């Protein structure tokens, strides 16, 4: 069977059992997890950010996935897992199919035959974030260890067993840029307090879902938490920008 045939089938109308149904992200995880045990809500959102899927949105902003979206996800994840293909190559391939083209084979003439997943790819599919040591964090952010220690002392970043995640890197970079304006770490403690209060609000709202044991409920809780936190950030930005606009009057 030509390699292009599985690709076209995977991007088709999906399984009959949910052909006319739209799914939330928790239900999508239930559909995909038997074949891709490491799949997570953050992984699906990442693929959306890269333009590989475009789910519909409800008026409230929640994502709804069609059968075509789910089968497209299944196809993309299979190519990542079995062929080690980068997302850009996969996107070019599925975009060609969307344009009505029919590539004879995958890039490089690869087939869709599965092969052993590397440790690195398995880690990516599990959605595990990159971690840094203190020294690596300083190098990645271009700052001194002294600044990182200051940020730790004021609670702006946290030490998780001598490891730091991508969020810590973003915080360090932002604090370094603020430092160029004369704003020191000690001035930024209110941001930590405000973030903790906002997260307390988010956690209370999603508690009925996050307290459940099933994967779908936890996925819906994570999705709702992300949506609410984004709205909180939008509100904060609007309030600050409103004050700045009034300064110009």
UniProtKB/TrEMBL annotation:
What keyword terms does UniProt attach to this protein?
DNA-binding
Its Gene Ontology molecular function terms? DNA binding; DNA-binding transcription factor activity
Q: Which residues form the HTH merR-type domain?
A: 38-96
What highest taxon heads this organism's lineage? Bacteria
SMART domains annotated for this entry?
HTH_MERR
- InterPro entries of this UniProt entry? DNA-bd_dom_put_sf, MerR-type_HTH_dom, MerR_fam
Q: What is this protein called?
A: Transcriptional regulator
């Amino acid at each position: 069977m030509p390699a292009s045939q599985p690709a076209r089938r995977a991007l088709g109308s999906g399984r009959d059992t949910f052909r006319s149904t739209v799914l939330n992200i928790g239900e999508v995880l239930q559909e995909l997890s038997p074949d891709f045990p490491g799949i997570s809500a953050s992984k699906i959102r990442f693929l959306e950010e890269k333009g590989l899927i475009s789910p519909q949105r409800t008026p409230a902003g929640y994502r709804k996935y069609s059968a075509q979206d789910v089968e497209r996800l299944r196809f993309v994840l299979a190519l990542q897992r079995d062929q080690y293909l980068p997302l850009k190559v996969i996107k070019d391939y599925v975009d060609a199919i969307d344009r009505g083209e029919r590539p004879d084979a995958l890039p490089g003439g690869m087939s869709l035959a599965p092969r052993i997943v590397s440790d690195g790819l398995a880690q990516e599919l599990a959605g595990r974030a990159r971690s840094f040591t203190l020294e690596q964090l300083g190098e990645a952010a271009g700052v001194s260890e002294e600044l990182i220690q200051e940020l730790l002392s004021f609670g702006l970043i946290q030490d998780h067993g001598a490891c730091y995640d991508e969020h810590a890197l973003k915080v360090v970079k932002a604090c370094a840029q603020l430092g160029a304006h004369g704003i020191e770490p000690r001035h930024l403690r209110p941001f930590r307090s405000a973030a903790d209060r906002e997260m307390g609000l988010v956690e209370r709202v999603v508690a009925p879902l996050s307290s459940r044991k099933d994967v779908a409920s936890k996925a819906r809780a994570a999705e709702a938490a992300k949506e609410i936190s984004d709205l909180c950030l939008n509100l904060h930005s609007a309030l600050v920008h409103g004050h700045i606009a009034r300064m110009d009057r």
